[in-house]
Fold each of these.
Amino acid sequence: MESGKPFRRALVKYTPGYGRSYTPPSQETRDLVAKMKLIPIADIIKGNRIVICEDSIVRGTQLKNFTIKKLRNAGVREIHVRPACPPLMFPCRFNLSTRSAHELAARKAIRELEGSDIENVTEYTDRKTEKYKKMVEWISKDLDVTTIRYQSIDDMIKSIGLPREKLCLYCWTGESPNPKKS
């Protein structure tokens, strides 16, 4: 509201009973939850530019197959995505929502850009590199959105308010947490 830009909910959640669409073990169930979860409000969407604030882009299932299609079908002019974290590069060691790096949207982009899976993704985790920029561009095109601007790891850490050594950053950097420092 402070910016003077209108804030309206272009999508409403069907019911709070549906959990996170990325957590079910099968793609079929994830798709069903994603499909039923959000309802577009065409009067708000048609002809407008929309910013989607996401906590993260895991596989891209929710965005690509459902949210973006619903917005496009309702006549959106532009879609800008702003995830609250950097691109996920590694599956979480403490959660079962992602079981392998292979299924992550960023890794899919890297595979497409490199022609195969690669072990060292360091150049893709540094937002200053051309490889990072090409990865984000590929994800943007794959999701059919106007722009994506990921949060930087440093800005994410700053927003959390804890020292880096007290955080698990494995999903983004591949660095294992050090329990002696926590």
Note: The chain has a mean pLDDT of 87.
Amino acid sequence: MSFPTLLELDDIRMNFGAIEALKGVSFKVGRGEVVALLGDNGAGKSTLVKIISGGLRASAGRMVFDGEERFFPTPAEAKAQGIETVYQDLSLCTNVDVVGNFFMGREIVKKWLGFIPVLQEKEMEEVVAQALQNAGTRIPSLRTNVEHLSGGQRQAIELNRFAHWGGKLVLLDEPFAALGVEQTRRGLDLIKRIAAQGIGVIIITHIMQQAFQVADRIVVIRQGRAVGDVPTRETSPDQVVGMITGEALAGQAQETRPNGPPPN
């Protein structure tokens, strides 16, 4: 399946002094495509996510997002252009209810007597109820404070909020690390629904099974380089592990080595 390009990374490099964290990473993410970004600890995945989302400025390379070449100077600007990063601990206000979190900074207000601002609580609650219903998310009461909800429910609120407000690309950094089996299953289903709306998704996970369940394509980062970029249906967990550990690269080097006795 072909996806129109949303994000293109071309030879992205990142230096921290003499340390090369990224050594020329290139790949694309399409609209409605789920890309699993895999690699061992220290491979450079989180650094790359920060560059995409405005947390870091790349030392070299080119990034094109939504048809425009640019790097975002701050996470706030990246978010304003439709890029959201969802971490394991999320970014919800736990002492605020579901409706309040969904409309945070975007509250519907009308003027009473022409000058007194009044929150339109009922209207906002109806919008949230419809958005969650469309996504297949069930929360008993939208007036429950987020601190009383499960990890899966919190994650659903954040992802649905992002989609509702016109998000274009979501970066998920180990989103299911603290969730149980059933909550993880629902989270993976939610990712598929988000992508079906034309939103690009990059998911970082250490759990191979999750990547193969949800991703259209797998990109492997090893020691700061993109060493694999393959459609999920055309590879296997063993092959991906070989890319992550370097065994696949060593095998390729062995195959290309000329036959005959070694030189003296």
Note: The first strand starts at residue 5 and ends at 16.
Amino acid sequence: MRPFLLLLSSFTLLHSSFSQDGFTSLFNGKDLAGWDGDPALWKVEDGVVIGTNPAPEAMANNSFLIWRGGTVKDFELRATVRVIGDNNSGLQYRSRELKEVAPWVITGYQCDIHPAIEHTGMTYEERGRGIFGLNGRDVMLDPEGVLWQIGEHAPVKVDVSQWNEYVIIAQGNRLRHFINGQLTSELVDHDEKKRSLEGLLAIQLHKGNPNRVEIKDLRLQVLPQAPLVPFEPAKVPATAHKIEKPRTSRPQGTGPVVPVKK
């Protein structure tokens, strides 16, 4: 009974099915039961979830398809996604709604799905602290919110217009993003005042340049609650160094931002 009780304590499953590998499918393949988003933007077609932004003037804000099955704490999420059009998407987790801004607006951690290689798979916080670790960079936020680079590796190069598998593993304050089995970025968040240990799952549809995000697989496995990684300055790698938070000159895609028609 213990695994079952652990599952129930983490979230309530709605409109989902179990598989033998311990993962739960979050889509039923037929409709958006268990999900909540702008019906003008989201649909299911041939077993694929599709979000469409038809024009720059169609959306005032980034809009999200929110999973209403509960909240997530420690978990592994696997999603097969592609983005058509010169724009980006993302997988939100441990997030919360900003109803005061607009319906279906979210703030929180995101695994970015972006045509610019440095951004895809990066660790990021939507409507929050911004970019943490670019693709190929492992980072840490200390208790004061100062960003440190603690590791570096070759960025994972993919074409986001093709189907790729994105994986998020969140355990305590350690967050890891992977694309097609390769680590893109890791974040250890020691900023107790601003970090989140629980929240919503959602899928981003980005405003601006016309684009379409498609998801044909989204599965979740709840993990046992992990202890928080303590901040121990003496154990910070000797090669670690403080960095400025990365900025971007490509907020949507790799080309110019299409102007809004007036």
Note: The helical segments are 2-10.
Amino acid sequence: MKVRIADLHHEWRALWPLLWPLLEPALRRSPDRPMPDGPPACVDAERWLLERLQAHDTQLWAVFDGGTPIAAVVTAIQDGGAERRCLLWLIGGRRARDWADGFLALVEGWARALGCTALWGSGRRGWARVVEPRGFRRIPDLDGQPAWQRRIR
């Protein structure tokens, strides 16, 4: 299983049609917006997310099994007062238990190099089975959904 960041400057045209269907359900369910200008209902969500990715407000990661993408993740670096954290914002695809360890190792090193002190995210209660064995702990809910965080410094 290979985990790598998708370079939008060079690969997004080829990858996006394969990754968007994985991300769309997560975007539609997401209460947490990395930017205050989340897409209103009348806005094309795909276009809005592409604009965020192209503006480097968010980062696109792809998980491949061989040459086939099986998952996609969108992260966002958030500065909050004295702390910088990496939001694991949108996660879509399948077989998360198979690739979570490799992905988290990669994103943790990347986030730490950017000065982040934690990885965090929120979502369905079922995510507890994936994130809690990997060192994430519950933090206050976000818009009624459970949230987890793992310190990386």
Note: The first strand starts at residue 2 and ends at 5.
